[in-house]
Design goal:
By secondary structure, the chain is α/β, with parallel strands linked by helices. The protein is built from ten helices and 14 strands. Helix 2 (about 45-55) packs across helix 9.
Length: about 300
C-alpha cells in the first residue's frame, strides 16, 4: 500500500500512521530500529529503498527517507507512506523536502523517529565530511557512509580517517569482509610462518582496496604496497612468507583462486556483494567497529599516504 501526502507536515504524516494502525494494523509494531536515509537526489532513490526493504527482513525497521530537493523552491514536504508488500518488513516514509526545509532535514525527521529504538543514519551518496557532527548524524548510534559513491572515493575515505567517531562505518568496509575471512583462514593453515610483506592490487579508485591494504598494514605490521590494476574493486592480494607467498587472485570480480605453498589451489566464491548484503551486515551491530577504525589508521602507513609523499 502506498499513500501519497503532497504538501503536508510531519504532524499529518504521524496522524496518518496512527490511522493506519487503528484501521487494522497495516503498520506493524515491533520495529527494532529507525533507519534514516539521507539523499540529495529526490528522484533516484528507488534502488536505495529496495535495498533497505530487503535488509528489513532481517532487521525490521521504520525507514525514513529524507530526499533533499531544490533549495530554490518554495518550502514544502511531499510525503509518501509505504506499508505492507511495498515496504518489506518495514514501514517506509519518504519525505521529499524543498526550499529551506531541504537544509533542515532533521526538523522533519526527528518527529517521526520510533521512540526508544536505536537510530541508524545512512548516506548512500555523497556524505558529510564529518558524519558525527551532521544534525542527522548526531542523533544516530550508527552512521553509514559509502565512499564508493563519492566522485573521489579515496579522498573521501581519507577524510573518514581524519573525522572518525565511534559509530562510524562505510559500506566499502563491508564489501571486503569475504576477502578478510579468506586471508585469515589461509594464514591459519601450515606452514605457520610470519608474513614479511604484502601487496594489494585493485582499481585505483576502489576504497575497499585501500581499506584492505590499511587493515593488513595495521595488523601485520609489515610494509604493504598498494598497486593499481584494471578491474573492478580488489583484484589480488599477495602475502610474502619465507616458504612462498599466499596469493588470492580474483580477475573477474566473481571467482577467486587461493594459492599457497604446500596446499592445493582452491577456487573461492568472491563475487561482488550486493547493496542489500553489505547493508544487512552493517545493521547487525550498533557498537563501535574498532577493526574498521584500525584499518583507517593503517591507511596512513601505506607509502602513498605517509607524510611527505603524494598519491
Amino acid at each position: 500500500m502506498i499513500i501519497d501526502l503532497p504538501s503536508t507536515t510531519t504532524s499529518k504524516v504521524n496522524q496518518k500512521l496512527v490511522e493506519l494502525r487503528e484501521r487494522g494494523g497495516a503498520v506493524a509494531l515491533g520495529r527494532v530500529l529507525t533507519l534514516v536515509i539521507v539523499t540529495e537526489d529526490a528522484t533516484g532513490i528507488e534502488d536505495t529503498i529496495d535495498a533497505a526493504n530487503e535488509a528489513s527482513r532481517e532487521h525490521p525497521s521504520r525507514i525514513i527517507v529524507a530526499a533533499r530537493g531544490l533549495r530554490e523552491a518554495a518550502p514544502r514536504i511531499d510525503a509518501q507512506i509505504r506499508v505492507g508488500g511495498d515496504a518489506g518488513a518495514s514501514e517506509v516514509l519518504v519525505l521529499r523536502l524543498y526550499g529551506p526545509l531541504a537544509g533542515e532535514a532533521d526538523s522533519a525527521v526527528v518527529p517521526l523517529l520510533l521512540p526508544d529504538a536505536p537510530i541508524v543514519t545512512w548516506w548512500p551518496g555523497i556524505a558529510p565530511d564529518d558524519p558525527a557532527t551532521d544534525p542527522l548524524g548526531r542523533i544516530a548510534q550508527r552512521r553509514i557512509t559509502d565512499a564508493a559513491a563519492d566522485p573521489d572515493p579515496i579522498a573521501a575515505l581519507r577524510t573518514r580517517a581524519t573525522s572518525y567517531t565511534d559509530g562510524d562505518t562505510d559500506l566499502a568496509w563491508a564489501r571486503l569482509t569475504h576477502w578478510r575471512a579468506q586471508l585469515v583462514a589461509a594464514l591459519d593453515l601450515p606452514p605457520h610462518e610470519p608474513v614479511t610483506a604484502a601487496t594489494v592490487t585493485g582499481d585505483g579508485n576502489s576504497p575497499s582496496t585501500e581499506l584492505l591494504a590499511g587493515w593488513l598494514a595495521y595488523y601485520l605490521g609489515v610494509p604493504v604496497r598498494r598497486e593499481q590494476a584494471d578491474g573492478q574493486g580488489i583484484v589480488s592480494v599477495s602475502l610474502e612468507r619465507p616458504s612462498g607467498p599466499v596469493e588470492l587472485h580474483r580477475p573477474d570480480g566473481k571467482t577467486g583462486t587461493l594459492h599457497q605453498h604446500g596446499q592445493p589451489d582452491r577456487t573461492i566464491d568472491l563475487h561482488r556483494r550486493s547493496l542489500c548484503d553489505v547493508l544487512v551486515e552493517e545493521l547487525r551491530r550498533l557498537d563501535p567497529d574498532e577493526v574498521y577504525e584500525r584499518a583507517l589508521r593503517g591507511m596512513r602507513l601505506l607509502p602513498n599516504n605517509q607524510e611527505g609523499t603524494h598519491a
